């Protein structure tokens, strides 16, 4: 069974991160970015919008987690993922005024499993991945599709 308990010390840390995220989300620059994204999405943008995907180098920019419980660490990481781009990169990503809760679900698109190949550094740290495409030639689409 999964343990969802959070130590009282972890709650203090998480509340501070929540305050920090809410503070960032209320900055005037975030309202400007929302307007810029809306204009961009309507084809009326005045500049290219930049959003840096940090998944492949997240450990290099993420602060050391302070929470002790596993649930606390997952929530702490979630808070950092909401605003680390603003703190470390300052791209055009908007810091949300809420904490999203993601459901861990999965499905196979068209009933076909898509495999992912990972690459690690000599120290074992993940440095990248690629998807193994199931269709290399449109003339030879698998029967299951």
Description:
There is one protein chain. α1 runs parallel beside α4. This protein has 2 domains: 82 residues, no CATH class; 32 residues, no CATH class. The chain is built from 4 helices and 2 strands. Strands 1-2 form a two-stranded antiparallel ribbon.
Structural class of the helices, strands and pairings? Answer: mainly alpha
- Uncertain spans, ≥5 residues at pLDDT below 50? none
Global mean pLDDT: 90
Strand residues, percent: 5-15%
Total strands: 2
Series of secondary-structure elements, N-terminal to C-terminal: HHHHEE
**End-to-end Cα distance:** 37 Å
When the domains are counted, the total is 2
Number of helices: 4
Query: Radius of gyration, rounded?
Result: 20 Å
Provide a compact summary of the structure:
This protein has helices at 8-25, 28-41, 58-61, 70-89, and strands at 115-120, 126-132. The protein is mainly alpha-helical. The chain has a two-stranded antiparallel ribbon.
List keywords for this structure.
single chain, about 140 residues, mainly alpha, 2 domains, two-stranded antiparallel ribbon, 2 strands, globular
SSE arrangement:
Blueprint: H1 8-25, H2 28-41, H3 58-61, H4 70-89, E1 115-120, E2 126-132
Antiparallel strand pairs: 1-2
Helix pairs in contact: 1-4
